[in-house]
Amino acid sequence: MIESVLITGANAGLGKETARQLALRQETKRVILFCRNRARAAAAKKELEENTGKRIFEVVIGDVTDADSVRRAVEDIREPIDAVVLNAGGVVGKAAANSTPSGMNQLAATNILGNVVLVDELIERDNLRKAALAVSAEAVPGVKMLGVKRVLTSTSSVDEFTAVLDGSYFGKKFVALNAYSYVKYAETMWALSMARRHPRLKFVVVSPGNTRGTQAAESLPPPMRFMLNYVMMPIVFPLMGEMVHPLDVGAKRFVDAISDERYKSGVFYASKEGKLSGELVDQSSFFTDLKNTSFQDNANEAIHRFIR
Ligand SMILES: NC(=O)c1ccc[n+]([C@@H]2O[C@H](COP(=O)([O-])OP(=O)(O)OC[C@H]3O[C@@H](n4cnc5c(N)ncnc54)[C@H](OP(=O)(O)O)[C@@H]3O)[C@@H](O)[C@H]2O)c1
Questions:
Q1: Best residue among 214, 255, 276 to mutate for probing ligand 1, ranked by most atoms within 8 Å of CB
Q2: How many angstroms separate the CA atoms of 174 and 223, rounded?
Q3: Could you identify the atom of ligand 1 that is nearest to the CA of residue 114?
Q4: Largest CB tally within 10 Å, which of 146, 158, 190, 242?
Q5: Could you tell me the pLDDT band of residue 301, with boundaries at 50, 70 and 90?
């Protein structure tokens, strides 16, 4: 039973909806909203209290691109928590390729750095009791019908993952949507590595699927945003079958995976091959690199090259 949970990026989109759904479960006694902006966090807390009738929300302020800010946030969490949902992330937008003080670029830092520091710090303080859910995407195994290629690194070595995280892997041709797949691959492999290193905890990886109603499209260039919001989401995807779903369905994937014993540690769950919605399946059944324990450990080691 998950009685207490912390969700990163909880003031909007899937994070906020996950907070809402978890709060409505009878056993939930505490939901910590980890957000970078105090005003947006306060507004989300108020809305969640009104929508659920529950007074179980707390706010912790931290920026996942800044390891020290996450460490300070962890100091504010005095009592152990059962689970964390590592949701903060996305395609990031224009600043994606910019470097952060850690050496990771903004894209990698947003999707990985703070989420990993958070878990490391909680484990070190013995303040994580049961589970961590890493949020990934179908972009990792690829979606053929949309021309999104499966992530294919040549070696998945520590150096190669390091280059993905600092951006040098992509040379001058940095395309955030392409780099996003590789960054989510690195994050996924880290979580699978952690599942073996910490058998006492459940480390599960989940894609929410292609989810309407988040602010994700805001970071895309205007023409792409227009296509996505007014053409792809409402017209094209629904015609393709199992390619899109509303916010509550995407967030329910997280709620189920974190609280239902049928979802196992060390597994990356997402849609069936080539789909973006519908049934959740183990992605390693068709993307076998996910099973490679050396690749998993290489991602973990590479990420920790940036954490000092
Ligand atoms: N939507 C989809 O279809 C989809 C599909 C596959 C995977 N995903 C993944 O699902 C997760 C949530 O996506 P979403 O669509 O719900 O995105 P969203 O609506 O853009 O929400 C992202 C959340 O992350 C927070 N965040 C961003 N940068 C942060 C930082 N540096 N420090 C702390 N918080 C930060 C945002 O806070 P601010 O409001 O302050 O910016 C916001 O609360 C992401 O990891 C994304 O990659 C989404």
A1: 214
A2: 18
A3: 32
A4: 190
A5: very high
The full set of domain ranges for the chain reads 4-303
What are 169's strand-pairing partners?
none
Spacing, Cα 163 to ligand 1 middle (Å): 23
* C-beta 102 within 6 A of ligand 1: no
Query: 89-123, pLDDT tens digit by residue?
Result: 999 988 999 999 999 999 999 999 999 999 999 99
Residues 6+ apart with CB under 8 A from 47: 16
Strand ranges inside the chain, DSSP E: 4-8, 30-35, 57-61, 81-86, 128-135, 202-206, 268-271, 280-282
Pull the structure tokens for residue 33: 């909203």
The answer to whether residue 50 scores a pLDDT higher than 90 is yes
35 sits in which H/E element: strand 30-35
* Architecture per CATH, 4-303: 3-Layer(aba) Sandwich (3.40)
Specify the ligand 1 atom closest to the Cα of 88: 24
Q: Is the CB of 277 under 6 A from ligand 1?
A: no
pTM of the full structure: 0.98
